Amino acid sequence: MLVVVLAGCTQAQLRGYMPGEPGITNHTDRIAGLWTTSWMVLMVVGLVTWGLIIWVAVVYRRRKGQTGLPVQLRYNMPIEILYTIVPFILIIGFFSFTARDQAAIEEPTPNPDVQVEVFAKRWAWDFNYLNVGPNGDGVYYQGIQAQEFDHNDSIDYDRLPTLVLPVNKTVEIALESRDVVHSFWVPDFLYKKDNVPGKSNYMYFTPQKEGTYAGKCAELCGEYHSLMLFNVEVVSEAEYESYIQSLVDAGQTGTRGAEYNVNTNQPGIEAPEHRG
After folding, report:
1. How many domains does the chain have?
2. How many Cα atoms within 13 Å fall on the side-chain side of residue 155?
3. 152 shares a domain with 99
Protein backbone atom coordinates (compact mmCIF):
# COMPACT_ATOMS: atom_id res chain seq x y z
CA MET A 1 0.00 0.00 0.00
CA LEU A 2 2.84 2.38 0.84
CA VAL A 3 4.46 1.74 -2.56
CA VAL A 4 1.17 2.45 -4.35
CA VAL A 5 0.63 5.67 -2.39
CA LEU A 6 4.18 6.95 -3.00
CA ALA A 7 3.99 6.05 -6.69
CA GLY A 8 1.11 8.50 -7.06
CA CYS A 9 2.99 11.38 -5.43
CA THR A 10 4.24 14.31 -7.48
CA GLN A 11 7.80 15.60 -7.14
CA ALA A 12 6.49 18.57 -5.13
CA GLN A 13 4.71 16.24 -2.72
CA LEU A 14 7.79 14.04 -2.32
CA ARG A 15 9.73 17.18 -1.35
CA GLY A 16 7.10 18.19 1.19
CA TYR A 17 5.99 21.17 -0.95
CA MET A 18 9.33 22.87 -0.31
CA PRO A 19 10.35 25.62 -2.79
CA GLY A 20 12.63 24.91 -5.73
CA GLU A 21 13.69 21.56 -7.09
CA PRO A 22 16.30 18.91 -6.23
CA GLY A 23 19.99 19.76 -6.47
CA ILE A 24 19.87 23.58 -6.64
CA THR A 25 22.73 23.74 -4.13
CA ASN A 26 24.79 21.06 -2.43
CA HIS A 27 22.61 21.49 0.68
CA THR A 28 19.04 21.57 -0.63
CA ASP A 29 18.55 17.81 -0.90
CA ARG A 30 19.82 17.35 2.65
CA ILE A 31 17.41 19.97 3.97
CA ALA A 32 14.45 18.61 2.00
CA GLY A 33 15.23 15.10 3.22
CA LEU A 34 15.25 16.23 6.86
CA TRP A 35 11.96 18.07 6.34
CA THR A 36 10.08 15.23 4.64
CA THR A 37 11.42 12.52 6.97
CA SER A 38 10.39 14.58 10.00
CA TRP A 39 6.87 14.98 8.64
CA MET A 40 6.59 11.26 7.89
CA VAL A 41 7.50 10.42 11.49
CA LEU A 42 5.10 13.07 12.81
CA MET A 43 2.29 11.77 10.61
CA VAL A 44 2.73 8.30 12.11
CA VAL A 45 2.71 9.81 15.61
CA GLY A 46 -0.42 11.77 14.74
CA LEU A 47 -2.23 8.73 13.35
CA VAL A 48 -1.37 6.66 16.44
CA THR A 49 -2.44 9.48 18.77
CA TRP A 50 -5.75 10.11 17.02
CA GLY A 51 -6.36 6.38 16.77
CA LEU A 52 -5.91 5.97 20.53
CA ILE A 53 -8.19 8.94 21.23
CA ILE A 54 -10.94 7.53 19.02
CA TRP A 55 -10.47 4.03 20.43
CA VAL A 56 -10.78 5.25 24.03
CA ALA A 57 -13.79 7.42 23.18
CA VAL A 58 -15.59 4.45 21.59
CA VAL A 59 -14.58 1.55 23.86
CA TYR A 60 -14.95 3.39 27.17
CA ARG A 61 -18.02 5.46 26.35
CA ARG A 62 -21.02 5.36 28.64
CA ARG A 63 -23.41 2.61 27.55
CA LYS A 64 -27.18 2.77 27.51
CA GLY A 65 -28.55 2.28 31.00
CA GLN A 66 -25.26 3.12 32.72
CA THR A 67 -25.04 5.94 35.24
CA GLY A 68 -22.14 7.73 36.84
CA LEU A 69 -18.56 7.76 35.60
CA PRO A 70 -17.14 4.92 33.49
CA VAL A 71 -14.60 2.63 35.14
CA GLN A 72 -11.47 4.65 35.85
CA LEU A 73 -7.94 3.41 35.22
CA ARG A 74 -4.92 4.87 36.99
CA TYR A 75 -1.31 4.06 37.81
CA ASN A 76 -0.67 1.90 34.77
CA MET A 77 3.09 1.80 34.96
CA PRO A 78 3.82 0.16 31.56
CA ILE A 79 1.67 2.74 29.72
CA GLU A 80 3.22 5.64 31.65
CA ILE A 81 6.71 4.37 30.82
CA LEU A 82 5.68 4.00 27.16
CA TYR A 83 4.37 7.54 26.72
CA THR A 84 7.45 8.92 28.50
CA ILE A 85 10.12 6.92 26.68
CA VAL A 86 8.69 7.17 23.13
CA PRO A 87 8.51 11.03 23.04
CA PHE A 88 11.99 11.16 24.57
CA ILE A 89 13.34 8.92 21.80
CA LEU A 90 11.61 11.10 19.18
CA ILE A 91 13.10 14.28 20.65
CA ILE A 92 16.60 12.79 20.71
CA GLY A 93 16.17 11.59 17.13
CA PHE A 94 14.95 14.93 15.79
CA PHE A 95 17.72 16.76 17.65
CA SER A 96 20.45 14.40 16.45
CA PHE A 97 19.54 14.50 12.75
CA THR A 98 19.00 18.27 12.85
CA ALA A 99 22.35 18.85 14.57
CA ARG A 100 24.07 16.55 12.06
CA ASP A 101 22.66 18.39 9.04
CA GLN A 102 23.18 21.84 10.55
CA ALA A 103 26.82 21.03 11.27
CA ALA A 104 27.31 19.95 7.65
CA ILE A 105 25.63 23.09 6.29
CA GLU A 106 27.52 25.43 8.61
CA GLU A 107 30.92 23.80 8.05
CA PRO A 108 33.25 26.51 6.66
CA THR A 109 34.55 25.85 3.16
CA PRO A 110 38.36 26.02 3.08
CA ASN A 111 39.67 28.23 0.27
CA PRO A 112 36.30 28.92 -1.40
CA ASP A 113 36.34 29.67 -5.12
CA VAL A 114 34.15 32.78 -4.68
CA GLN A 115 34.00 35.17 -1.73
CA VAL A 116 31.26 37.78 -1.54
CA GLU A 117 30.35 40.37 1.08
CA VAL A 118 26.62 41.07 1.17
CA PHE A 119 25.72 44.35 2.86
CA ALA A 120 22.03 44.70 3.67
CA LYS A 121 20.70 48.24 3.92
CA ARG A 122 17.28 49.82 4.12
CA TRP A 123 15.99 48.74 1.66
CA ALA A 124 18.39 47.16 -0.79
CA TRP A 125 21.64 45.21 -1.07
CA ASP A 126 25.31 45.87 -1.88
CA PHE A 127 27.55 43.07 -3.16
CA ASN A 128 31.34 43.09 -2.86
CA TYR A 129 33.12 40.43 -4.93
CA LEU A 130 36.43 39.89 -3.15
CA ASN A 131 39.86 38.95 -4.53
CA VAL A 132 38.94 39.71 -8.15
CA GLY A 133 39.48 42.66 -10.48
CA PRO A 134 42.65 44.76 -10.80
CA ASN A 135 45.28 43.66 -8.25
CA GLY A 136 42.66 41.46 -6.61
CA ASP A 137 41.16 44.51 -4.86
CA GLY A 138 37.63 43.39 -5.60
CA VAL A 139 34.67 44.85 -7.47
CA TYR A 140 31.29 45.96 -6.20
CA TYR A 141 27.64 46.34 -7.08
CA GLN A 142 25.39 48.83 -5.27
CA GLY A 143 21.68 48.05 -5.43
CA ILE A 144 18.52 50.06 -4.99
CA GLN A 145 15.21 48.95 -3.52
CA ALA A 146 12.61 47.42 -5.82
CA GLN A 147 11.03 50.07 -8.05
CA GLU A 148 7.27 50.08 -8.58
CA PHE A 149 5.53 51.09 -11.78
CA ASP A 150 3.19 54.03 -11.16
CA HIS A 151 0.33 52.70 -13.26
CA ASN A 152 -0.23 49.34 -11.55
CA ASP A 153 2.07 49.13 -8.50
CA SER A 154 3.92 46.13 -9.98
CA ILE A 155 7.66 45.62 -9.56
CA ASP A 156 10.30 46.43 -12.18
CA TYR A 157 12.18 43.13 -11.84
CA ASP A 158 14.85 44.18 -14.34
CA ARG A 159 16.20 46.70 -11.83
CA LEU A 160 16.42 44.42 -8.80
CA PRO A 161 19.86 43.99 -7.20
CA THR A 162 21.42 40.84 -8.63
CA LEU A 163 24.09 38.64 -7.07
CA VAL A 164 25.88 36.70 -9.82
CA LEU A 165 27.55 33.37 -8.92
CA PRO A 166 29.31 30.72 -11.03
CA VAL A 167 27.80 27.24 -11.15
CA ASN A 168 29.61 24.36 -9.41
CA LYS A 169 32.00 26.68 -7.57
CA THR A 170 32.26 26.82 -3.78
CA VAL A 171 30.90 30.09 -2.38
CA GLU A 172 31.45 31.92 0.89
CA ILE A 173 29.06 34.78 1.64
CA ALA A 174 29.80 37.19 4.50
CA LEU A 175 26.57 38.79 5.68
CA GLU A 176 26.75 42.35 7.02
CA SER A 177 24.29 45.14 7.80
CA ARG A 178 24.63 48.88 7.33
CA ASP A 179 21.81 49.80 9.73
CA VAL A 180 19.33 47.40 11.36
CA VAL A 181 18.82 43.62 11.42
CA HIS A 182 17.95 42.15 8.02
CA SER A 183 17.87 38.56 6.79
CA PHE A 184 19.32 37.11 3.57
CA TRP A 185 16.82 34.58 2.22
CA VAL A 186 16.71 32.75 -1.10
CA PRO A 187 13.67 30.42 -0.75
CA ASP A 188 14.88 27.98 -3.42
CA PHE A 189 18.14 27.53 -1.45
CA LEU A 190 16.08 26.39 1.60
CA TYR A 191 18.25 28.41 3.96
CA LYS A 192 18.44 31.91 5.36
CA LYS A 193 20.59 33.82 7.80
CA ASP A 194 20.44 37.21 9.48
CA ASN A 195 22.49 40.31 8.68
CA VAL A 196 23.21 41.73 12.13
CA PRO A 197 24.80 45.16 12.74
CA GLY A 198 28.29 44.82 14.20
CA LYS A 199 28.45 41.06 13.54
CA SER A 200 29.56 39.01 10.54
CA ASN A 201 27.55 35.89 9.67
CA TYR A 202 28.61 33.44 6.98
CA MET A 203 26.98 31.07 4.51
CA TYR A 204 28.79 28.31 2.62
CA PHE A 205 27.33 26.47 -0.36
CA THR A 206 27.89 25.37 -3.94
CA PRO A 207 25.25 26.37 -6.53
CA GLN A 208 24.69 23.37 -8.79
CA LYS A 209 22.05 24.53 -11.27
CA GLU A 210 22.10 27.57 -13.50
CA GLY A 211 19.11 29.87 -13.23
CA THR A 212 17.71 32.96 -11.58
CA TYR A 213 16.51 32.59 -8.00
CA ALA A 214 14.40 35.20 -6.21
CA GLY A 215 15.55 36.49 -2.83
CA LYS A 216 14.18 38.82 -0.21
CA CYS A 217 14.76 40.20 3.25
CA ALA A 218 13.08 37.92 5.80
CA GLU A 219 13.33 40.25 8.81
CA LEU A 220 10.89 43.14 9.24
CA CYS A 221 13.20 46.13 8.88
CA GLY A 222 11.02 49.17 8.29
CA GLU A 223 8.57 50.89 5.98
CA TYR A 224 9.78 49.43 2.67
CA HIS A 225 10.72 45.97 3.91
CA SER A 226 8.45 44.39 1.27
CA LEU A 227 10.52 46.08 -1.47
CA MET A 228 13.86 44.74 -0.21
CA LEU A 229 14.11 42.19 -3.00
CA PHE A 230 17.03 40.78 -4.98
CA ASN A 231 17.95 37.99 -7.38
CA VAL A 232 20.69 35.39 -7.34
CA GLU A 233 21.76 34.51 -10.88
CA VAL A 234 23.78 31.30 -11.22
CA VAL A 235 25.68 31.29 -14.51
CA SER A 236 28.55 29.50 -16.23
CA GLU A 237 32.09 30.34 -15.19
CA ALA A 238 32.65 32.21 -18.45
CA GLU A 239 29.55 34.33 -17.91
CA TYR A 240 30.64 35.02 -14.33
CA GLU A 241 34.07 36.19 -15.46
CA SER A 242 32.42 38.38 -18.10
CA TYR A 243 30.17 39.92 -15.44
CA ILE A 244 33.12 40.68 -13.17
CA GLN A 245 34.88 42.33 -16.12
CA SER A 246 31.77 44.43 -16.83
CA LEU A 247 31.97 45.82 -13.27
CA VAL A 248 35.66 46.60 -13.83
CA ASP A 249 34.85 48.33 -17.11
CA ALA A 250 32.17 50.37 -15.34
CA GLY A 251 34.77 51.61 -12.84
CA GLN A 252 33.22 49.71 -9.93
CA THR A 253 36.55 48.50 -8.57
CA GLY A 254 37.46 48.10 -4.93
CA THR A 255 34.80 47.45 -2.34
CA ARG A 256 32.11 49.42 -0.52
CA GLY A 257 32.55 48.25 3.05
CA ALA A 258 31.65 49.20 6.61
CA GLU A 259 32.69 52.83 6.03
CA TYR A 260 29.28 53.34 4.41
CA ASN A 261 27.32 52.02 7.37
CA VAL A 262 24.78 54.50 8.71
CA ASN A 263 24.61 52.87 12.14
CA THR A 264 27.85 54.00 13.79
CA ASN A 265 26.94 53.19 17.39
CA GLN A 266 28.10 49.58 17.26
CA PRO A 267 30.43 47.46 19.41
CA GLY A 268 34.02 48.47 18.84
CA ILE A 269 33.06 51.97 17.64
CA GLU A 270 33.31 55.00 19.91
CA ALA A 271 30.07 56.45 21.21
CA PRO A 272 28.85 59.50 19.30
CA GLU A 273 29.93 62.85 20.69
CA HIS A 274 27.36 64.41 23.01
CA ARG A 275 26.27 67.87 22.00
CA GLY A 276 24.30 69.77 24.61
Report:
1. 2
2. 16
3. no
